[in-house]
Amino acid sequence: MGTENDLDVEGQTEPPIRGLNKSACQSNFSTPSPTLAGTSGATTDGDEEGRGSTTSTPTLLTPESAHTLTVPDVCSLLDTDPQNGIDDAEAARRLEQHGPNKVEGAKGLSLWTILLRQVSNSLTLVLVITMVLSFAIDDMIEGGVIAAVILLNIVVGFIQDYRAEQTIQALYALSAPTCKVIRSGKTDNIKAADLVPGDLVRLGVGDVVPADLRLVNSINLSTDEALLTGESLPVSKHAERVLKDRDVPLGDRTNMVYSASTVTRGRATGVVTATGMTTEVGKIAELLRQGSGPAVDPDSSFIVRAWTRVRNLMRVLLGLNGTPLQVSLSKFALLLFGLAILLAIIVFSVNKFDIDSEVLIYGICVAVAVIPESLIAVLTISTALGTRAMAKGNVVIRNLASLEAVGGVTNVCSDKTGTLTQGKMVAKRVWLADGTEVSIQNTTHPFDPTGGNVTVGGKEFTRSESKDEKVTPSLNDFLETVALCNNSTITNVDNTYTAIGEPTEIALQVFAMRFGFGKPSLTASGNNQLLAEYPFDSSCKRMTVVCTDESGGASAYTKGALEAILPLMNIPDSQKVEIVTKAEALASEGLRVLCIAKKAVNPKDFAASDAEKITPASTDALPPRPTVESNLVFLGLAGLYDPPRLESAAAVAKCQTAGITVHMLTGDHVATATAIAYEIGILKGDKNAPSAKNNSQIMLASAFDALSEAEIDALPALPLVLARCSPTTKVRMVEAMHRRKAFCVMTGDGVNDSPALKISDVGIAMGLNGSDVAKEAADMVLTDDNFASIVTAVQEGRRLFDNIQKFLLHLLISNIAQVILLLIGLSFKDEFGVSVFPLSPLEILWANLVTSSFLALGLGLEEAQPDVMQRPPHSLATGIFTKELIIDKFVYGTAMGALCLASFSSVAYSGLSGSDGLGYKCNEDYSDVCGTAFKARATTFATLTFLLLVTAWEAKHFTRSLFNMHPEKYTGFTSVFKTIWSNTFLWWAVSAGFIICFPVIYLPTVNRVVFKHEAITWEWGIVAACVVVYICIVEAWKAGKRKRGMGSGVIVGVKEGEA
C-alpha cells in the first residue's frame, strides 16, 4: 500500500506560502576530499526545481559540488557507466587507492585516559609530592595515609567514569553492513566497506544509505536525515533536479542522499561520490578525533612545536583544562603548594637553617597543615553520589566534573524535535468547508486518541457523546476521508498505543479515532472496502483511494498539498482565495497544512481492480488518475505539528527564573520553530503583533552564517531561535557565546550536533533517539530525551556547587587554624630551646583526613537551598572562591587557631598539669618530663576536633544562625535540633567524631606512642570554654553580615529579619 510523504504534502504550505528563504548557508565542511580531488565551479541554467544543463563542465569533482551537476556529468567525472557501473577490477583498484568505506571512531576514552583524568589535577600532584616527602623522612604512617587518600580518589573516580563509558559505549560505524551494488551490469550484495567512488548503489525502503550518493534515478524516494541535518521529517529526493548553488545546506540537496540516512519510501539508484571519512558523517567524526588544546602548527619551527606540545601536556597534567571548578581548584592547589614551601622555609629560617630531623619534620608538618588532603577525595565522592541522584533524574553523567559545571550554566542551546517537543506529529487545527474549526489541545501522547481536549466550533467535544448526534455532515465527510485515505495503523495493547506508518498519516488517523471514525471501525461492517489506490507521488503531491459506501456507490478520497489539489476542485475563485488565506494563517502558526477533498465515483469503473494500488501495468484497466481526481469537493484543511512536551513550558520558565537564557537551535523551518518557541515561552509577547514579524530574536541560519564574528559580537543579544541550522551554525553559536563569556550547555541528538556538543562547556546528548556519535561527544546523556531533565541537572549542579563551597569552607578553616597554631607554636620551646609541636604529625593528619573528611562529605550531601533555582548563575569570573568564602575562612580560621593556641598555652603554662615546663625531646617519645607537653597537646587536639564538629553545622549556611537556620521550615527553640538532624549523614559524622575522640585520647599506647599525647582530666573545661567562645564568635559574625546585608544565602520570600 502506498504511503505519503508528509514533507512533500505540506511542502508549499509551510513557510513557502510566504516565501521560503533558500539562500545558501555557509558550507559546513569544505575541506578537499582525498577521494575525489579537485574543485568544481559548475553552475546550471536550470531551475532549482528542475533539470538544467551545466554552463561549464569541470574536469575534476568534489563531493561538495556533486549536487550542482547533471547525472551524465557526475558519471563522466567519476568514469562510471550510469547503467552498468564499474567492473570488479576497477573497483579493486579504487578500493586499494581510497581505502575501505568506514567511519573511524572518535578518540573514545580508553582505560588509560580515564585513569589519567583522575590524577590530572594539581591537588593530586601536591598530595603525591607530600606523600613522597613523608616516605623520604621515614614517616611511614603519614605517607601511608596520604597514599590511601590518593588511591581512594583514583578508584572512586575511575569506577564512576568507567561505568558511564560502559553505559554510553563507544562510537559505532554508522555505515550499513551490506548494500546492493551494480558492477558490470550485474546486481550483487557486497559489504558496504568495499564501496568505492563511482559504484552504482541500489536503494529500497528500510535501507541505510552506505555512502554519499548522487542520485541517478529515483521513484517516490524519501529519506530520514534527522541524525545528519536535524530535519524532523523525511525529505523527498529527486534525481532529475540540478541545484545551482554549491553551498546549499545538506537538508536542501534533494538530488543527494547521505551516509547513515535511512530510506523511508520509494527506491532509487545512486552513484557513490564520497566514502569513509570523506562523507558528511565522516567529516563530523573527524572533528571528534581532534584533540583539545591549541593546535600544533605543522609549519612552525621544531622548538615552537615542541613547546606547544609540552605546554598542552602540562595544562592537562595540572588540571588547567576543564570546568571552571577544576581550573579554580588546580590553581588553588598550586597556590597552596607555593605557600607550603614558603611556610617550610619560615620554619627553617626560625631555626637559623640548622635543620635536624625534628626541624625537618616540623617544617613538613606545617606544609602538610596548609594542604586540605581530603578535599579531592570528598569532592570526588560527593560528585559521584550526585551522579547517582542524577541517574534517577534520567541523566547519565559521563564526566564527573560536568555535573558541577552544569550548575553554572548561563545559556542553554536546545534542539527542538524530540527534546522540547514530543517528536511526533499531531493534528492541532482543522478548518472545515462550512467554516467550523476543530482544535486539539493538551495532547499527552501523540498516538492516544483519548488524550487531550477536543473543541468543535468553540464547544468541547467528548468521546462519550454520540457521533451521530454531535458530528456534523461536513465533519463526517472530513473524518471518513482522512481515515480511509490512510495506510497507518494504530494499535492499543493494555492501554498503550503504538503506531506504524508515516507521521502525517498517523496524526490524521488518530484525529479520526478521536471521533470514533478510525479506519478499522469504518471497514468492520464490510462497508468502505478499498477498490483502488492511487498512491502518493512526489510529482503530483497527493494520494487518492476509492472505496465503496453504504448506499452501494463509491467515493474517491483525496489528501495532499493545497497547491496540488486546489486546481482540481470545482469551486468559485472567491472560495479558492478564502481557502488559500486560511492555509496561510495556519502555516504562519508553524503548522503543516494538508488539503482534504472527495467526490462520488461509479464503482463499476473499478470492478476490475483487485483492491490493489495502481501500478503502471494496471492503469489501462482503470480510469486514469486525472479523471478520478477531477471536480473534487473541498472538505477542509488539516494543520499538523509536533507538539511541545507538557513539561517543556514549565522547564523553560524555571530556567528563565534562574537567570538562564534558553535558545532553540533547530534544523526545522523558521515558522515551525517560532510557533513552538512562543508556545513554550522561549519567545515572549504576541506572536501576531506587527513587531513580531521582524523580531531580531529569530534568525535563519543562513543569515547568521553570513555574519562575520565582529558582526555577531555587535548584536545586542544572540538570537533565541535559529532555524535551518547546520553543524557550522551551532558551532559558531557556541563560539559566539564563549566570546561573550557565557557558560553554555548544548543539547543534540544527531551526528550534525556532535561538533557543537564537543566544544560547548557541557554537551548533553539524547539517549533514546541520539546517535552514537553525539553520545561520544557529550558530557551527559538524557535517557528520556526530555528538556526538563536538563533543568534537573542544572538544579543538581547548583546544589553541588553550593555544597562544595560549604565543605571547602570547612576544610580551609581547619587548614588556616593549623597553620596559625603551628607557626606561632614555634615559640613554644623546651628546655633546650627546641620548638615543641602543639600538634603531632599524626594528629594533623587525623584532623584533616578522618575528622574533617566525613564532616566535609556530610556537607556535600546537604539538600538544595529553597532558592537554588530562583537566583542568577554564580559568577564565572569569581568561581568557587567568592569574596564571602575567602573572608569567612580567615575569620573563622583565625578564631579557631587562636583558641587552639589558648588551649595549649593554658595547659602548658598554668602549672596545673604536674611538671613545670615542656620537658625535652617531647616531639619523639614520652618520658616523665613530657607530661605537661603531652597533656597540652591532647587538649589542643580535643579543642581542634570539637571546633571542627561545631563548624560543620555552622557551615550549613553562610549567613543564617545555626539556631534559626530554616525559619520557613522550623520555628522555636527546638529548631536547632531539627536543623542538625535534617542531614542524617552529617549528624552521624559529627557524633562519630565526638565519640572517637575519647579512645584516641585515653587508649594506652595509642595516645602516647601513636598520637604523642596524654590522657586529660580538668583540661576538658578549657575545651568546653573554647567551644562556647567559638560559637559566640561565629554567631556574632553571621549576625553582623545579616545586619549589613553582606554575603549570600538570603532565601527568596524570607525577610532579612527572619533569617
From TrEMBL:
Primary location class: membrane
Source species, domain of life: Eukaryota
Transmembrane segments: 119-137, 143-159, 332-353, 359-382, 807-828, 844-861, 890-912, 932-953, 985-1003, 1015-1037
Chain segments carrying region Disordered: 1-62
EC assignment: 7.2.2.3
Protein's cellular compartments: Cell membrane
Membrane topology according to the record: Multi-pass membrane protein
Pfam families xrefs: Cation_ATPase, Cation_ATPase_C, Cation_ATPase_N, E1-E2_ATPase, Hydrolase_3
Polar residues bias (residue ranges): 23-43
Domain Cation-transporting P-type ATPase N-terminal span(s) in chain numbering: 65-139
Composition bias type Acidic residues, residue spans: 1-11
GO cellular component, one term: plasma membrane
Xref: InterPro entries: ATPase_P-typ_cation-transptr_C, ATPase_P-typ_cation-transptr_N, ATPase_P-typ_cyto_dom_N, ATPase_P-typ_P_site, ATPase_P-typ_TM_dom_sf, ATPase_P-typ_transduc_dom_A_sf, ATPase_P-type_domA, HAD-like_sf
Residue stretches of biased makeup (Low complexity): 53-62
Family named by the database record: Belongs to the cation transport ATPase (P-type) (TC 3.A.3) family. Type IID subfamily.
Name of the protein in its database record: Sodium/potassium exporting P-type ATPase 1
Lineage: Eukaryota, Fungi, Dikarya, Ascomycota, Pezizomycotina
